[in-house]
């Protein structure tokens, strides 16, 4: 099956049985408000110069612009830059809402312990992999998730996505960025999504994220948000009131679980923040 590996400047690079071909998309897609993105399975014209059809998508993300994802690796560093749990939770929620398996990959654990992140996600059911490049610890776990799947990497600039890609597939020789000590963040070294066939699967290299961009991955309705926090699920149906929002209601089983130490306080704080954001969003806003 042919699929788009990269799109840039109106040109799309499609991997076919014969290799990668450069082509354009039919104008009808623009009229329909559809933009082909990396990961799209497509049908080409007989001469291979045009994308004639975009096959039905499993899912699609606007940022990063990629379709048919199976796994979203969310890369965070223990330091330089310090991770924002709210951003990480927004990313994991967006992935789950889109039917994608989120996997947290924590880098720079040799510089600072990752205990805080490990504790926050311990009861969430969301996999967390600690990477140690010198020993190679964690790399096989990442490879296991890539095998047979289409995967993407996301995370703030400077967390080590390109370094991780180099470790997974040295033949790609991705450019690594230098951390800006003054700003505490890295320079963007990747400017468009590009899909590579590595580790028995397909891997999408994605541009760095800013905090605001993380919120644009998916517009999750406030009523659906609770389902993107897997650790809440055991308490569904146990709240005193039907339709409990798990915020300030009396007899909320989720809040009781937080107070009892069964749900991470930082994860619950993220839920409250994301709920308020969803609640404040107007129905007509994209």
Overview of this structure, please?
Helix 2 (85-97) packs across helix 9 (265-280). This protein has a six-stranded mixed beta sheet with strand order 10-9-8-11-15-14, with helices on both faces. A five-stranded mixed β-barrel has the order 1-2-3-5-4. A two-stranded antiparallel sheet has the order 6-7. By secondary structure, it is α/β, with parallel strands linked by helices. It is globular. Helix 3 (115-121) links the parallel strand 9 and strand 10 (128-130). The chain starts with a strand and ends in a 6-residue tail after the last helix. It has helices at residues 27-31, 85-97, 115-121, 139-146, 161-168, 211-214, 222-225, 253-259, 265-280, and strands at residues 2-8, 11-16, 19-25, 41-44, 50-54, 60-61, 66-67, 71-77, 101-107, 128-130, 150-154, 179-180, 185-186, 194-198, 201-205. It is 25% helix and 24% strand.
């Amino acid at each position: 099956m042919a699929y788009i590996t990269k799109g840039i400047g109106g040109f799309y690079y499609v991997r076919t049985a014969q290799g990668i071909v450069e082509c354009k998309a039919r104008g009808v897609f623009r009229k329909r408000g559809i933009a082909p993105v990396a990961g799209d399975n497509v049908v080409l014209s007989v001469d291979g110069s045009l994308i004639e059809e975009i096959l039905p998508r499993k899912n699609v993300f606007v940022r990063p612009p990629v379709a048919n994802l199976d796994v979203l690796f969310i890369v965070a560093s223990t330091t330089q830059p310090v991770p924002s749990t709210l951003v990480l939770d927004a990313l994991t929620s967006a992935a789950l809402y889109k039917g994608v398996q989120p996997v947290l990959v924590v880098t720079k654990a040799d510089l600072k312990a990752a205990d805080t992140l490990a504790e926050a996600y311990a009861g969430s059911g969301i996999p967390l992999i600690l990477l140690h490049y010198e020993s190679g610890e964690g790399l096989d776990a990442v490879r296991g998730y890539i095998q047979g799947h289409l995967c993407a990497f996301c995370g703030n600039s400077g967390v080590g996505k390109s370094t991780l890609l180099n470790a997974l597939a040295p033949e790609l020789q991705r450019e690594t960025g230098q951390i800006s000590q003054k700003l505490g963040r890295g320079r963007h070294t990747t400017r468009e999504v590009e899909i590579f066939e590595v580790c028995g699967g397909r891997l999408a290299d994605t541009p760095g994220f800013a905090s605001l961009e993380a919120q644009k991955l998916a517009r999750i309705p406030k009523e659906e948000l609770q389902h993107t926090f897997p650790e809440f699920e055991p308490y569904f149906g146990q709240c005193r009131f039907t339709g409990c929002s798990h915020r300030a209601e009396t007899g909320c089983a989720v809040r009781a679980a937080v107070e009892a130490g069964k749900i991470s306080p930082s994860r619950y704080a993220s839920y409250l923040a994301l709920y308020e954001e969803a609640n404040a969003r107007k129905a007509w806003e994209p």
